[in-house]
Write a structure and sequence with these properties.
With 296 residues, the protein is of the alpha/beta class. It is built from 10 helices and 8 strands. It has one domain: Thiamin diphosphate (ThDP)-binding fold, Pyr/PP domains (Rossmann fold, 3-Layer(aba) Sandwich).
């Protein structure tokens, strides 16, 4: 979500600190992801009371009580409609949603499709470790073909969903990919996503040290490169699709596509465009006693 409510107040990392201990597996990419998110929010001047952090069920959701700010821990695969509703109700908040590849492209793929289509003003961080880690290593919609997982000991036989191909084909106005081992790169991309007006999709290539042995941390280190250090044109959707295609040998990371003329959902809504008030300002308290008293 674009940071249209950030104050000039200096924000420190300590403001996002939580007394709760992190419980991810040693070596999990979530440690770096949360550090980079805190850094990006601080760099954008977003204070904890201006941030609305929405977590799906899964390993990403185990971080919901490990960071300060307004937080919502939703149902599996359903965090995007919650985040979209919050962004529509109060545009003063910086809304960040997080979910895994299973929730995003399995249970919640319909919500992903319409979040992109609606171009709701949120930043969406998709933790792609190519499996359901929290439920002990089942194959997800992004698990690679022929890879053996606990639910598929003989190997996955279905063609995996390609997240970038899907997002870009749906018309995403911001689509990026980054590796969880690159904290500086995540910080840079997260900041751009937060500042973007509209739905900012960030796929995070993340190792799962416990259940997915096919793509360990070192596997990504040997293959990723920063496409923003090349002559790649981020305003060219066709170029982004071509650059994003390879997920096996030379994997492009960074901002793949961004529409500089993106107009988010609420700015297109004819009913709301001339109104200065936020939806949340229009919420009123109604006395329903006359109605409930009839039920006694």
């Amino acid at each position: 979500m674009s940071c249209n409510s950030c104050s000039t107040k200096t924000v420190g990392l300590a403001e996002y600190a939580s007394p709760n201990a992190l419980t991810w597996c040693p070596g999990c990419g979530n440690f770096g992801i949360q550090v980079a998110l805190k850094q990006a929010l601080v760099a954008q001047g977003v204070t904890p009371h201006q941030a609305m952090l929405c977590f799906d069920v899964g390993c990403n959701g185990n971080g919901s009580d490990k960071i300060d700010g307004y937080r919502f821990h939703g149902l599996h695969g359903r965090i995007l409609p919650v985040a979209a509703g919050i962004a529509c109700a109060n545009k003063k908040l910086t809304v960040v949603a997080e979910a895994g590849d299973g929730a995003t492209f399995g249970e919640g793929v319909n919500h992903f499709v319409h979040a992109v289509r609606g171009n709701f003003d949120i930043t969406f961080l998709c933790h792609n470790n190519e499996n359901y880690g929290l439920t002990k290593g089942q194959a997800s919609a992004t698990t690679r073909e022929d890879v053996a997982m606990n639910s598929n000991p003989d190997g996955v036989t279905s063609t995996p969903i390609h997240p970038q191909r899907l997002a870009l084909s749906l018309g995403a106005t911001f689509s990026a990919r980054i590796f969880s081992g690159d904290i500086a790169g995540m910080n840079r991309v997260f900041q751009a996503a937060i500042a973007h007006k509209g739905f900012a999709f960030v796929e995070i290539l993340q190792n799962c040290p416990t259940y997915n042995k096919h793509t360990p941390h070192e596997w990504y280190q040997q293959r990723v490169y920063n496409i923003n250090e090349t002559d790649h044109d981020t305003s060219n959707r066709a170029a982004a699709v071509a650059a994003a295609e390879d997920i096996n040998e030379k994997v492009a990371t960074g901002i793949l596509y961004q529409d500089p003329n993106s107009v988010p959902f609420m700015m297109r809504d004819a009913v709301r465009k001339d109104l200065g008030a936020e939806l949340i300002d229009e919420v009123k308290t109604y006395d329903i006693t006359p109605y409930t008293s009839r039920m006694r």
